[in-house]
Amino acid sequence: MKDQQLDVIIVGAGIAGQVGDPFREPQTLFSTLFSPVSTFKDKLLLLKLTLKLRFCSVEELFQRPETTTMIYLQRYGFTEKFIALFFRPFFTGIFLENELKTSSRMFEFTFKMFAEGWSSMVWQ
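RESULT FIELD:
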C-alpha cells in the first residue's frame, strides 16, 4: 500500500487546474488558490465545509436533516461549474451514480473521511 497525494487534477470545459489540501500538503496552496476550475467563493466554501465536517462527529452527521447531495451542494452555495467539474466526477466514482442523488448524510460522511484520512493504493 502506498499513500496517495491529496490533490486532484481537474480537466474539463477547456480548463485544467489543481485542488489540494494545503493544511496537509502545504505545497498545494498556490496551485489551489490560483486554480481556474473554481471561483474564490468556491474555494472559501470548500474550506468552510472541510472545517465544519472535521469538527463534527459522525453521530452528528447522521442525525442531520437529509436531502440529496446535489441539493446540499447547491444550497451550500457552490457554483454549478465547480459542482460539474469537481464534485460530480469525484463522487460519481464513489457513489456509482452521476446525478448526485445520494443522501447528503453519506456525502458529508464520505467528505469528512477524505478530509481527515489518507487514501491509499496497492502498488505492485
